[in-house]
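Fold this complex.
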Amino acid sequence: MATKASRSAARLMMAPAVVLLLGWMLVPLIMTLWFSFRTYLPLRGGDQGWTGFDNYVRFVTSSAFWPAVQTTLIIVVGVLIITVVLGVLLAMLLDQPMWGQGVVRILVIAPFFVMPTVSALVWKNMFMDPVNGLFAHLWRFFGAEPVSWLSDAAMPSIIMIVSWQWLPFATLILLTAIQSLDSEQLEAAEMDGAPKLKQFYYIILPHLGRAITIVILIQTIFLLAIFAEIFVTTGGAFGTRTLSYLIFQRVLESQNVGLGSAGGVYAIILANIVAIFLMRIVGKNLDN
Amino acid sequence: MARAVTPRRKLINTGFAWAIGLLIFFPILWTILTSFKTEAQAIASPPIFLNFDWTLENYGVVMERSNYARFLWNSIIIAGGSTILGLIIAVPAAWSMAFVPSRRTKDILLWMLSTKMLPAVGVLYPIYLLFIQMGLLDSRAGLVIVMMLINLPIIIWMLYTYFREIPVEILEAARMDGATLREEVLYILTPMAIPGIASTMLLNFILAWNEAFWTLNLTAVDAAPLTAFIASYSSPEGLFFAKLSAASTMAIAPILILGWFSQKQLVRGLTFGAVK
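Structure:
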Protein backbone atom coordinates (compact mmCIF):
# COMPACT_ATOMS: atom_id res chain seq x y z
CA MET A 1 0.00 0.00 0.00
CA ALA A 2 1.18 3.49 0.75
CA THR A 3 4.93 3.74 0.77
CA LYS A 4 6.98 5.96 3.01
CA ALA A 5 7.62 8.30 0.08
CA SER A 6 3.96 8.66 -0.73
CA ARG A 7 3.22 9.29 2.94
CA SER A 8 5.54 12.24 3.13
CA ALA A 9 4.29 13.46 -0.25
CA ALA A 10 0.77 13.25 1.11
CA ARG A 11 1.72 15.27 4.14
CA LEU A 12 3.25 17.88 1.89
CA MET A 13 0.09 18.08 -0.19
CA MET A 14 -2.00 18.60 2.89
CA ALA A 15 0.27 21.26 4.32
CA PRO A 16 -1.03 24.38 2.53
CA ALA A 17 -4.63 23.70 3.47
CA VAL A 18 -3.77 22.88 7.08
CA VAL A 19 -1.46 25.87 7.52
CA LEU A 20 -3.96 28.30 5.97
CA LEU A 21 -6.88 27.09 8.01
CA LEU A 22 -4.81 27.03 11.16
CA GLY A 23 -3.78 30.63 10.55
CA TRP A 24 -7.32 31.65 9.63
CA MET A 25 -8.57 30.15 12.88
CA LEU A 26 -5.83 31.02 15.33
CA VAL A 27 -4.76 34.54 14.38
CA PRO A 28 -8.18 36.21 14.62
CA LEU A 29 -9.15 34.04 17.57
CA ILE A 30 -6.10 35.05 19.57
CA MET A 31 -6.62 38.69 18.62
CA THR A 32 -10.26 38.55 19.70
CA LEU A 33 -9.24 36.97 23.00
CA TRP A 34 -6.55 39.61 23.48
CA PHE A 35 -8.90 42.52 22.74
CA SER A 36 -11.57 41.07 24.98
CA PHE A 37 -9.36 41.64 28.02
CA ARG A 38 -8.49 45.22 27.10
CA THR A 39 -10.22 48.58 27.02
CA TYR A 40 -9.95 49.28 23.34
CA LEU A 41 -11.82 52.18 21.74
CA PRO A 42 -10.21 52.91 18.37
CA LEU A 43 -11.91 56.30 17.98
CA ARG A 44 -11.74 57.39 21.60
CA GLY A 45 -8.19 56.93 22.85
CA GLY A 46 -7.31 53.57 21.30
CA ASP A 47 -5.92 50.76 23.42
CA GLN A 48 -6.04 51.73 27.08
CA GLY A 49 -4.66 48.62 28.67
CA TRP A 50 -5.88 45.63 30.63
CA THR A 51 -9.22 45.40 32.28
CA GLY A 52 -9.34 41.75 33.21
CA PHE A 53 -12.82 40.31 32.90
CA ASP A 54 -14.54 43.69 32.92
CA ASN A 55 -15.67 43.45 29.30
CA TYR A 56 -17.12 39.99 29.87
CA VAL A 57 -19.03 41.21 32.89
CA ARG A 58 -20.19 44.40 31.17
CA PHE A 59 -21.35 42.52 28.10
CA VAL A 60 -23.66 40.20 30.03
CA THR A 61 -24.85 42.85 32.46
CA SER A 62 -25.71 45.43 29.79
CA SER A 63 -29.41 45.99 29.34
CA ALA A 64 -29.16 44.87 25.71
CA PHE A 65 -27.76 41.43 26.48
CA TRP A 66 -30.71 39.36 27.68
CA PRO A 67 -33.14 40.75 25.11
CA ALA A 68 -30.55 39.86 22.45
CA VAL A 69 -30.23 36.32 23.79
CA GLN A 70 -33.99 36.01 23.83
CA THR A 71 -34.30 37.37 20.28
CA THR A 72 -31.63 34.97 19.05
CA LEU A 73 -33.33 32.00 20.67
CA ILE A 74 -36.77 32.94 19.34
CA ILE A 75 -35.46 33.32 15.81
CA VAL A 76 -33.43 30.10 15.88
CA VAL A 77 -36.14 27.98 17.50
CA GLY A 78 -38.94 29.56 15.48
CA VAL A 79 -37.22 29.02 12.16
CA LEU A 80 -36.18 25.48 13.13
CA ILE A 81 -39.72 24.46 14.05
CA ILE A 82 -41.20 25.94 10.88
CA THR A 83 -38.59 24.59 8.50
CA VAL A 84 -38.36 21.10 10.02
CA VAL A 85 -42.12 20.52 10.33
CA LEU A 86 -42.94 21.96 6.91
CA GLY A 87 -39.79 20.34 5.49
CA VAL A 88 -40.90 16.85 6.58
CA LEU A 89 -44.40 17.37 5.18
CA LEU A 90 -43.10 18.83 1.96
CA ALA A 91 -40.51 16.10 1.51
CA MET A 92 -43.18 13.46 1.96
CA LEU A 93 -45.39 15.21 -0.56
CA LEU A 94 -42.59 15.56 -3.10
CA ASP A 95 -41.80 11.88 -2.71
CA GLN A 96 -45.28 10.92 -3.94
CA PRO A 97 -45.81 9.98 -7.57
CA MET A 98 -46.94 13.02 -9.56
CA TRP A 99 -46.64 14.81 -12.86
CA GLY A 100 -43.87 17.37 -13.23
CA GLN A 101 -42.02 16.31 -10.09
CA GLY A 102 -38.75 17.79 -11.33
CA VAL A 103 -40.28 21.20 -11.95
CA VAL A 104 -41.97 21.32 -8.55
CA ARG A 105 -38.68 20.44 -6.90
CA ILE A 106 -36.97 23.30 -8.67
CA LEU A 107 -39.71 25.72 -7.60
CA VAL A 108 -39.35 24.64 -3.98
CA ILE A 109 -35.57 24.80 -3.91
CA ALA A 110 -35.23 28.18 -5.64
CA PRO A 111 -35.36 30.45 -2.56
CA PHE A 112 -32.14 28.89 -1.27
CA PHE A 113 -30.25 30.40 -4.19
CA VAL A 114 -31.50 33.92 -3.66
CA MET A 115 -28.87 36.06 -1.98
CA PRO A 116 -29.87 37.11 1.56
CA THR A 117 -29.85 40.84 0.78
CA VAL A 118 -32.24 40.31 -2.13
CA SER A 119 -34.69 38.15 -0.24
CA ALA A 120 -34.68 40.48 2.74
CA LEU A 121 -35.27 43.55 0.57
CA VAL A 122 -37.89 41.98 -1.67
CA TRP A 123 -39.87 40.81 1.34
CA LYS A 124 -39.41 44.10 3.15
CA ASN A 125 -40.55 46.35 0.32
CA MET A 126 -42.63 44.42 -2.12
CA PHE A 127 -44.51 42.26 0.36
CA MET A 128 -44.37 43.87 3.79
CA ASP A 129 -44.48 47.56 2.91
CA PRO A 130 -47.52 48.92 4.78
CA VAL A 131 -48.66 51.09 1.84
CA ASN A 132 -47.74 49.41 -1.42
CA GLY A 133 -46.73 45.93 -0.33
CA LEU A 134 -48.64 42.96 -1.64
CA PHE A 135 -49.76 42.04 1.89
CA ALA A 136 -51.18 45.54 2.31
CA HIS A 137 -53.22 45.08 -0.88
CA LEU A 138 -54.37 41.71 0.34
CA TRP A 139 -55.38 43.04 3.75
CA ARG A 140 -57.27 45.92 2.19
CA PHE A 141 -59.01 43.52 -0.18
CA PHE A 142 -60.41 41.71 2.86
CA GLY A 143 -61.30 45.00 4.44
CA ALA A 144 -58.58 44.85 7.09
CA GLU A 145 -56.17 47.54 8.16
CA PRO A 146 -52.71 46.93 6.56
CA VAL A 147 -50.01 45.94 9.04
CA SER A 148 -46.63 47.67 9.39
CA TRP A 149 -44.93 44.31 9.38
CA LEU A 150 -41.35 45.21 10.12
CA SER A 151 -42.14 47.61 12.94
CA ASP A 152 -45.28 46.24 14.55
CA ALA A 153 -44.62 42.56 13.98
CA ALA A 154 -40.89 42.64 13.39
CA MET A 155 -40.00 39.26 14.88
CA PRO A 156 -42.65 37.19 13.08
CA SER A 157 -41.68 38.98 9.87
CA ILE A 158 -37.98 38.18 10.25
CA ILE A 159 -38.78 34.59 11.20
CA MET A 160 -40.94 34.31 8.11
CA ILE A 161 -38.27 35.70 5.79
CA VAL A 162 -35.56 33.47 7.22
CA SER A 163 -37.84 30.42 7.16
CA TRP A 164 -38.57 31.04 3.51
CA GLN A 165 -34.84 31.02 2.85
CA TRP A 166 -34.14 27.83 4.80
CA LEU A 167 -37.22 25.71 4.06
CA PRO A 168 -35.70 24.58 0.74
CA PHE A 169 -32.57 23.37 2.50
CA ALA A 170 -34.52 21.32 5.04
CA THR A 171 -36.85 19.96 2.35
CA LEU A 172 -34.04 18.97 0.03
CA ILE A 173 -32.10 17.08 2.69
CA LEU A 174 -35.18 15.39 4.12
CA LEU A 175 -36.32 14.44 0.63
CA THR A 176 -32.95 12.84 -0.06
CA ALA A 177 -33.29 10.91 3.19
CA ILE A 178 -36.88 9.80 2.47
CA GLN A 179 -35.87 8.53 -0.94
CA SER A 180 -33.39 6.17 0.66
CA LEU A 181 -36.19 4.55 2.67
CA ASP A 182 -36.83 0.96 1.74
CA SER A 183 -40.32 0.98 0.22
CA GLU A 184 -40.83 -2.70 1.03
CA GLN A 185 -41.01 -1.80 4.68
CA LEU A 186 -43.88 0.55 4.01
CA GLU A 187 -45.61 -1.95 1.77
CA ALA A 188 -45.35 -4.58 4.46
CA ALA A 189 -46.82 -2.20 6.98
CA GLU A 190 -49.57 -1.38 4.53
CA MET A 191 -50.42 -5.04 4.09
CA ASP A 192 -50.54 -5.56 7.83
CA GLY A 193 -53.14 -2.85 7.85
CA ALA A 194 -51.13 -0.23 9.70
CA PRO A 195 -52.85 3.15 9.47
CA LYS A 196 -50.99 5.97 7.67
CA LEU A 197 -50.38 7.88 10.86
CA LYS A 198 -48.75 4.86 12.48
CA GLN A 199 -46.63 4.24 9.38
CA PHE A 200 -45.41 7.78 9.62
CA TYR A 201 -44.73 7.59 13.33
CA TYR A 202 -43.04 4.19 13.46
CA ILE A 203 -41.29 3.92 10.09
CA ILE A 204 -40.80 7.27 8.34
CA LEU A 205 -39.98 9.44 11.33
CA PRO A 206 -37.35 7.12 12.85
CA HIS A 207 -35.77 6.76 9.42
CA LEU A 208 -35.57 10.54 9.14
CA GLY A 209 -34.16 10.94 12.63
CA ARG A 210 -30.58 11.40 11.61
CA ALA A 211 -31.34 13.72 8.70
CA ILE A 212 -33.53 15.86 10.96
CA THR A 213 -30.72 16.07 13.51
CA ILE A 214 -28.30 17.18 10.83
CA VAL A 215 -30.73 19.77 9.47
CA ILE A 216 -31.22 21.14 12.99
CA LEU A 217 -27.51 21.34 13.75
CA ILE A 218 -26.42 22.90 10.47
CA GLN A 219 -29.26 25.38 10.44
CA THR A 220 -28.58 26.33 14.04
CA ILE A 221 -25.01 27.23 13.19
CA PHE A 222 -26.10 29.39 10.26
CA LEU A 223 -29.11 30.87 12.06
CA LEU A 224 -27.03 31.95 15.05
CA ALA A 225 -25.06 34.04 12.55
CA ILE A 226 -27.80 35.58 10.39
CA PHE A 227 -26.82 39.11 9.57
CA ALA A 228 -27.92 40.49 6.21
CA GLU A 229 -31.62 39.80 6.86
CA ILE A 230 -31.54 42.06 9.92
CA PHE A 231 -29.05 44.57 8.52
CA VAL A 232 -31.27 45.28 5.52
CA THR A 233 -34.71 45.13 7.13
CA THR A 234 -34.78 46.57 10.65
CA GLY A 235 -31.14 47.31 11.42
CA GLY A 236 -31.64 45.67 14.79
CA ALA A 237 -34.57 47.89 15.79
CA PHE A 238 -38.03 46.79 17.02
CA GLY A 239 -36.65 44.00 19.18
CA THR A 240 -34.83 42.18 16.40
CA ARG A 241 -31.31 42.66 17.71
CA THR A 242 -29.75 39.23 17.89
CA LEU A 243 -26.57 38.38 19.75
CA SER A 244 -24.50 38.51 16.53
CA TYR A 245 -26.04 41.82 15.58
CA LEU A 246 -25.36 43.24 19.04
CA ILE A 247 -21.70 42.25 18.74
CA PHE A 248 -21.54 43.76 15.25
CA GLN A 249 -22.92 47.04 16.61
CA ARG A 250 -20.51 47.09 19.54
CA VAL A 251 -17.51 46.47 17.32
CA LEU A 252 -18.19 48.47 14.17
CA GLU A 253 -20.90 50.98 15.00
CA SER A 254 -19.95 52.09 18.50
CA GLN A 255 -16.32 51.04 18.02
CA ASN A 256 -15.97 49.47 21.43
CA VAL A 257 -13.71 46.66 20.39
CA GLY A 258 -12.96 45.32 23.87
CA LEU A 259 -16.63 44.91 24.70
CA GLY A 260 -17.52 43.54 21.28
CA SER A 261 -14.68 41.04 21.45
CA ALA A 262 -15.88 39.74 24.78
CA GLY A 263 -19.27 39.28 23.12
CA GLY A 264 -17.50 37.54 20.24
CA VAL A 265 -15.94 35.06 22.64
CA TYR A 266 -19.40 34.26 24.02
CA ALA A 267 -20.68 33.72 20.48
CA ILE A 268 -17.76 31.44 19.69
CA ILE A 269 -18.41 29.34 22.79
CA LEU A 270 -22.11 29.11 21.97
CA ALA A 271 -21.44 28.03 18.38
CA ASN A 272 -18.95 25.45 19.57
CA ILE A 273 -21.45 23.82 21.88
CA VAL A 274 -23.69 23.20 18.87
CA ALA A 275 -20.75 22.24 16.70
CA ILE A 276 -19.60 19.46 19.05
CA PHE A 277 -22.87 17.60 18.51
CA LEU A 278 -22.71 18.05 14.76
CA MET A 279 -19.12 16.84 14.64
CA ARG A 280 -19.98 13.73 16.58
CA ILE A 281 -22.59 12.73 14.01
CA VAL A 282 -20.42 13.60 11.03
CA GLY A 283 -17.47 11.79 12.63
CA LYS A 284 -19.52 8.65 13.20
CA ASN A 285 -20.54 8.70 9.57
CA LEU A 286 -16.90 8.88 8.55
CA ASP A 287 -16.15 5.53 10.19
CA ASN A 288 -18.46 3.43 8.07
CA MET B 1 -39.81 4.78 -4.77
CA ALA B 2 -42.12 4.11 -7.64
CA ARG B 3 -45.28 3.04 -5.94
CA ALA B 4 -48.35 2.21 -7.91
CA VAL B 5 -51.15 4.65 -7.22
CA THR B 6 -54.51 5.36 -8.72
CA PRO B 7 -54.60 8.16 -11.34
CA ARG B 8 -57.00 10.04 -9.08
CA ARG B 9 -54.48 9.98 -6.27
CA LYS B 10 -51.74 11.05 -8.60
CA LEU B 11 -53.84 13.95 -9.80
CA ILE B 12 -54.47 15.12 -6.23
CA ASN B 13 -50.74 14.86 -5.44
CA THR B 14 -49.86 16.82 -8.53
CA GLY B 15 -52.33 19.62 -7.85
CA PHE B 16 -51.32 19.91 -4.23
CA ALA B 17 -47.58 19.85 -4.90
CA TRP B 18 -47.80 22.38 -7.72
CA ALA B 19 -49.86 24.74 -5.60
CA ILE B 20 -47.32 24.64 -2.78
CA GLY B 21 -44.37 24.85 -5.16
CA LEU B 22 -45.80 27.94 -6.82
CA LEU B 23 -46.57 29.51 -3.45
CA ILE B 24 -42.96 29.08 -2.34
CA PHE B 25 -41.63 30.32 -5.66
CA PHE B 26 -44.06 33.22 -5.81
CA PRO B 27 -41.83 35.95 -4.28
CA ILE B 28 -39.21 35.24 -6.94
CA LEU B 29 -41.80 35.12 -9.73
CA TRP B 30 -43.36 38.35 -8.48
CA THR B 31 -39.95 40.05 -8.43
CA ILE B 32 -39.22 38.98 -11.98
CA LEU B 33 -42.65 40.11 -13.20
CA THR B 34 -42.41 43.45 -11.41
CA SER B 35 -39.06 44.13 -13.00
CA PHE B 36 -40.85 44.42 -16.36
CA LYS B 37 -43.52 46.86 -15.16
CA THR B 38 -43.45 50.63 -15.00
CA GLU B 39 -43.15 52.12 -11.51
CA ALA B 40 -46.81 53.12 -11.55
CA GLN B 41 -47.92 49.62 -12.51
CA ALA B 42 -45.64 48.11 -9.90
CA ILE B 43 -47.56 49.74 -7.06
CA ALA B 44 -50.98 49.69 -8.72
CA SER B 45 -53.89 48.74 -6.52
CA PRO B 46 -55.20 46.14 -7.03
CA PRO B 47 -51.88 44.59 -8.11
CA ILE B 48 -51.49 43.74 -11.78
CA PHE B 49 -50.38 40.20 -12.38
CA LEU B 50 -49.69 39.72 -16.09
CA ASN B 51 -51.67 42.19 -18.15
CA PHE B 52 -49.29 45.13 -17.97
CA ASP B 53 -47.17 46.80 -20.67
CA TRP B 54 -43.95 44.86 -20.58
CA THR B 55 -40.94 47.16 -20.57
CA LEU B 56 -37.19 46.79 -20.29
CA GLU B 57 -36.80 50.35 -19.11
CA ASN B 58 -35.96 49.46 -15.49
CA TYR B 59 -33.02 47.35 -16.52
CA GLY B 60 -31.65 50.25 -18.51
CA VAL B 61 -32.07 52.69 -15.64
CA VAL B 62 -30.48 50.37 -13.07
CA MET B 63 -27.48 49.63 -15.25
CA GLU B 64 -26.94 53.25 -16.10
CA ARG B 65 -27.38 54.70 -12.68
CA SER B 66 -25.54 52.32 -10.45
CA ASN B 67 -22.74 51.05 -12.56
CA TYR B 68 -24.15 47.55 -12.35
CA ALA B 69 -21.40 46.09 -14.50
CA ARG B 70 -18.74 46.84 -11.91
CA PHE B 71 -20.68 45.14 -9.11
CA LEU B 72 -21.32 42.17 -11.35
CA TRP B 73 -17.67 41.96 -12.29
CA ASN B 74 -16.67 42.11 -8.60
CA SER B 75 -19.07 39.28 -7.81
CA ILE B 76 -17.67 37.17 -10.60
CA ILE B 77 -14.07 37.83 -9.59
CA ILE B 78 -14.71 37.18 -5.90
CA ALA B 79 -16.82 34.06 -6.36
CA GLY B 80 -14.78 32.70 -9.26
CA GLY B 81 -11.37 33.61 -7.87
CA SER B 82 -12.05 32.16 -4.44
CA THR B 83 -13.38 28.97 -6.01
CA ILE B 84 -10.36 28.42 -8.21
CA LEU B 85 -7.88 29.31 -5.49
CA GLY B 86 -9.75 27.06 -3.09
CA LEU B 87 -9.62 24.13 -5.51
CA ILE B 88 -5.88 24.53 -6.07
CA ILE B 89 -5.32 24.21 -2.35
CA ALA B 90 -8.05 21.67 -1.64
CA VAL B 91 -7.49 19.09 -4.38
CA PRO B 92 -4.05 17.95 -3.15
CA ALA B 93 -5.22 17.98 0.47
CA ALA B 94 -8.39 16.00 -0.22
CA TRP B 95 -6.46 13.62 -2.46
CA SER B 96 -3.88 12.80 0.18
CA MET B 97 -6.50 12.31 2.86
CA ALA B 98 -8.63 10.05 0.67
CA PHE B 99 -5.84 7.87 -0.69
CA VAL B 100 -3.08 7.99 1.88
CA PRO B 101 -5.09 8.15 5.06
CA SER B 102 -3.28 8.12 8.36
CA ARG B 103 -4.52 7.67 11.89
CA ARG B 104 -5.03 11.38 12.17
CA THR B 105 -6.95 11.93 8.93
CA LYS B 106 -10.34 11.80 10.58
CA ASP B 107 -9.31 14.27 13.25
CA ILE B 108 -7.87 16.65 10.68
CA LEU B 109 -11.07 16.51 8.62
CA LEU B 110 -13.23 17.19 11.64
CA TRP B 111 -10.96 19.98 12.78
CA MET B 112 -11.18 21.59 9.33
CA LEU B 113 -14.94 21.41 9.56
CA SER B 114 -14.83 23.04 12.98
CA THR B 115 -13.17 26.14 11.54
CA LYS B 116 -16.35 26.60 9.49
CA MET B 117 -18.34 26.82 12.71
CA LEU B 118 -16.45 29.85 13.96
CA PRO B 119 -19.01 32.67 14.04
CA ALA B 120 -17.86 35.41 11.69
CA VAL B 121 -18.93 38.16 14.04
CA GLY B 122 -16.55 36.80 16.68
CA VAL B 123 -13.53 37.50 14.50
CA LEU B 124 -14.89 40.53 12.64
CA TYR B 125 -12.66 43.14 14.21
CA PRO B 126 -9.35 41.25 13.95
CA ILE B 127 -9.98 40.59 10.27
CA TYR B 128 -11.06 44.19 9.76
CA LEU B 129 -7.88 45.42 11.46
CA LEU B 130 -5.60 43.04 9.57
CA PHE B 131 -7.27 44.10 6.33
CA ILE B 132 -6.60 47.77 7.05
CA GLN B 133 -2.99 47.09 7.93
CA MET B 134 -2.40 44.99 4.85
CA GLY B 135 -4.23 47.42 2.60
CA LEU B 136 -6.79 44.75 1.73
CA LEU B 137 -9.91 46.58 2.87
CA ASP B 138 -12.29 47.13 -0.03
CA SER B 139 -10.07 45.14 -2.37
CA ARG B 140 -11.09 42.21 -4.51
CA ALA B 141 -7.93 40.31 -3.55
CA GLY B 142 -8.83 40.54 0.12
CA LEU B 143 -12.33 39.20 -0.44
CA VAL B 144 -11.08 36.41 -2.68
CA ILE B 145 -8.85 35.29 0.19
CA VAL B 146 -11.59 35.51 2.82
CA MET B 147 -14.16 33.71 0.66
CA MET B 148 -11.60 31.04 -0.15
CA LEU B 149 -10.83 30.50 3.53
CA ILE B 150 -14.41 30.33 4.73
CA ASN B 151 -15.34 27.84 2.03
CA LEU B 152 -12.14 25.78 2.05
CA PRO B 153 -13.45 23.27 4.61
CA ILE B 154 -16.55 22.63 2.46
CA ILE B 155 -14.45 22.22 -0.68
CA ILE B 156 -12.09 19.78 1.00
CA TRP B 157 -14.97 17.79 2.48
CA MET B 158 -16.87 17.54 -0.78
CA LEU B 159 -13.79 16.52 -2.73
CA TYR B 160 -12.88 14.03 -0.04
CA THR B 161 -16.26 12.31 -0.24
CA TYR B 162 -16.01 12.17 -4.05
CA PHE B 163 -12.41 10.92 -4.06
CA ARG B 164 -13.25 8.19 -1.60
CA GLU B 165 -15.65 6.72 -4.12
CA ILE B 166 -12.84 6.13 -6.61
CA PRO B 167 -11.75 2.50 -6.33
CA VAL B 168 -8.22 2.14 -4.90
CA GLU B 169 -7.55 -0.91 -7.08
CA ILE B 170 -7.19 1.32 -10.11
CA LEU B 171 -4.46 3.29 -8.38
CA GLU B 172 -2.67 0.14 -7.36
CA ALA B 173 -2.74 -1.14 -10.90
CA ALA B 174 -1.28 2.13 -12.14
CA ARG B 175 1.48 1.94 -9.54
CA MET B 176 2.32 -1.58 -10.65
CA ASP B 177 2.73 -0.23 -14.15
CA GLY B 178 5.22 2.24 -12.79
CA ALA B 179 3.17 5.40 -12.76
CA THR B 180 4.69 8.16 -10.66
CA LEU B 181 2.70 10.06 -8.10
CA ARG B 182 2.33 12.99 -10.45
CA GLU B 183 1.13 10.83 -13.32
CA GLU B 184 -1.22 9.02 -11.00
CA VAL B 185 -2.89 12.27 -9.98
CA LEU B 186 -2.85 13.84 -13.41
CA TYR B 187 -3.89 10.99 -15.71
CA ILE B 188 -5.92 8.66 -13.55
CA LEU B 189 -7.46 10.49 -10.65
CA THR B 190 -8.23 13.80 -12.25
CA PRO B 191 -10.32 12.44 -15.12
CA MET B 192 -12.27 10.22 -12.73
CA ALA B 193 -12.74 13.04 -10.28
CA ILE B 194 -13.88 15.67 -12.76
CA PRO B 195 -17.63 15.31 -12.08
CA GLY B 196 -16.98 15.66 -8.37
CA ILE B 197 -14.69 18.62 -8.86
CA ALA B 198 -17.20 20.29 -11.17
CA SER B 199 -20.02 20.05 -8.68
CA THR B 200 -17.77 21.23 -5.88
CA MET B 201 -16.89 24.26 -8.00
CA LEU B 202 -20.52 24.98 -8.69
CA LEU B 203 -21.64 24.84 -5.08
CA ASN B 204 -18.71 26.88 -3.90
CA PHE B 205 -19.34 29.52 -6.52
CA ILE B 206 -22.95 29.80 -5.35
CA LEU B 207 -22.00 30.05 -1.69
CA ALA B 208 -19.39 32.73 -2.38
CA TRP B 209 -21.76 34.67 -4.64
CA ASN B 210 -24.44 34.85 -1.96
CA GLU B 211 -22.21 35.43 1.05
CA ALA B 212 -23.40 38.59 2.77
CA PHE B 213 -21.46 39.13 5.97
CA TRP B 214 -17.90 39.67 4.88
CA THR B 215 -18.86 41.19 1.55
CA LEU B 216 -20.95 43.82 3.36
CA ASN B 217 -18.45 44.54 6.10
CA LEU B 218 -15.18 44.51 4.19
CA THR B 219 -16.14 46.44 1.07
CA ALA B 220 -17.15 50.01 0.40
CA VAL B 221 -16.91 51.08 -3.20
CA ASP B 222 -14.17 49.47 -5.23
CA ALA B 223 -14.66 45.82 -4.41
CA ALA B 224 -18.37 45.82 -3.57
CA PRO B 225 -20.16 42.85 -5.17
CA LEU B 226 -23.86 42.41 -5.94
CA THR B 227 -24.81 41.68 -2.32
CA ALA B 228 -23.68 45.20 -1.42
CA PHE B 229 -25.26 46.62 -4.58
CA ILE B 230 -28.65 45.32 -3.46
CA ALA B 231 -28.14 46.39 0.14
CA SER B 232 -27.68 49.94 -1.17
CA TYR B 233 -31.29 49.77 -2.34
CA SER B 234 -32.33 49.41 1.27
CA SER B 235 -33.93 52.86 1.40
CA PRO B 236 -35.38 55.00 0.06
CA GLU B 237 -34.54 53.77 -3.43
CA GLY B 238 -36.01 50.39 -2.55
CA LEU B 239 -39.43 51.98 -2.73
CA PHE B 240 -39.08 52.12 -6.49
CA PHE B 241 -40.35 48.58 -6.78
CA ALA B 242 -39.77 48.09 -10.48
CA LYS B 243 -36.15 49.18 -10.30
CA LEU B 244 -35.53 47.21 -7.13
CA SER B 245 -36.98 44.18 -8.91
CA ALA B 246 -34.82 44.68 -11.96
CA ALA B 247 -31.71 45.00 -9.80
CA SER B 248 -32.70 41.93 -7.78
CA THR B 249 -33.47 39.85 -10.84
CA MET B 250 -30.09 40.65 -12.31
CA ALA B 251 -28.37 39.72 -9.05
CA ILE B 252 -30.06 36.35 -8.62
CA ALA B 253 -30.67 35.13 -12.16
CA PRO B 254 -27.19 33.69 -12.83
CA ILE B 255 -27.19 31.82 -9.55
CA LEU B 256 -30.74 30.49 -9.90
CA ILE B 257 -29.72 28.91 -13.17
CA LEU B 258 -26.47 27.48 -11.79
CA GLY B 259 -28.28 26.38 -8.65
CA TRP B 260 -30.79 24.27 -10.52
CA PHE B 261 -27.94 22.27 -11.98
CA SER B 262 -26.37 21.68 -8.60
CA GLN B 263 -29.33 20.64 -6.47
CA LYS B 264 -28.15 17.04 -6.08
CA GLN B 265 -24.64 18.03 -5.04
CA LEU B 266 -26.04 20.61 -2.68
CA VAL B 267 -27.12 17.96 -0.20
CA ARG B 268 -23.75 16.29 -0.11
CA GLY B 269 -21.85 19.56 0.09
CA LEU B 270 -23.91 21.11 2.81
CA THR B 271 -24.15 18.07 5.04
CA PHE B 272 -20.48 17.19 4.68
CA GLY B 273 -21.34 13.85 3.19
CA ALA B 274 -23.52 12.87 6.14
CA VAL B 275 -26.64 12.64 3.95
CA LYS B 276 -26.23 11.38 0.43
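Chain A touches chain B through 111 residues (CB under 8 Å).
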